[in-house]
Amino acid sequence: MPNFKAWISAARLRTLPLSVSGIIVGSSLAMKHLFWQSSIFWLAILTTIGFQVLSNFANDYGDGIKGADDNREGEQRMVSSGLISPKQMKMGILITAIFSMISAIVLIYYAFGAEDFLHSLLFFILGIASVIAALKYTIGKNAYGYSGLGDVFVFLFFGLLSVLGSYYLLDHQMVWDLLLPASTIGFLSMAVLNLNNMRDIENDAKNNKNTLVVSLGSSKAKIYHYVLISLAVLLTLLYSIINDHSIRQLIYVIAFLPLIINLVTVYKNKEPKLLDSELKKVALSTFSFALLFGFFH
Description:
This protein has 297 residues and is an all-alpha fold.
């Protein structure tokens, strides 16, 4: 059996702060409106981490068996390296999917109880959709990560569902201006994926992994990156203006400062593999924004 270190590597822990950023933002907004239950918050965090690890295992497996990771840049992948066999990874995927759904069911029960069947059913369906999205990114003949649709799913699940869903679990209502911070998290998450795909553009093109970056080409992918970062910042400022926030509360914009360096680095970049460190920069900036937003919005 693979050792513990191999499974930790496959889980890709550096992706977890980004995955929980939307939960932090959505929950902090609910807290502002005096709706808060720590049990729901921590169960949402646990469930989200479960789905993210599931996605990471599935991506490792899907890209590994298709040969897309054979000459990749960045972190070593476990299936392609042979440290975890495809059969073992499939078992890991199954166990993680079961754990994630159990966590989701407990979360739904704490949020809605046994009486609110319709809301419970809705969020159960969203849980199933999250599992399917995690699996279909790279697994199967029609994997959407191979047809340029990864960005759309990242926006929907990391942005809208994460922020609006966590808020709804606590408050049981929808506040439409929350689409602005939800979109901010979504666009920043898309920026991380875009950097990942920019780094891997040469290898992805060789393996017929037609990400949006492969379709656009490096030059247009850079412009796309600038747009994603700019929209994230502008929507945050718009949310603050709409909600009449003070300058003191806008301190959370400090989290965006490293993104200026990121934009300059992307603009100057001529070797895609050198973009690997930029993924962490944008992911941690997103997580920092979520924390500061939670404290100061």
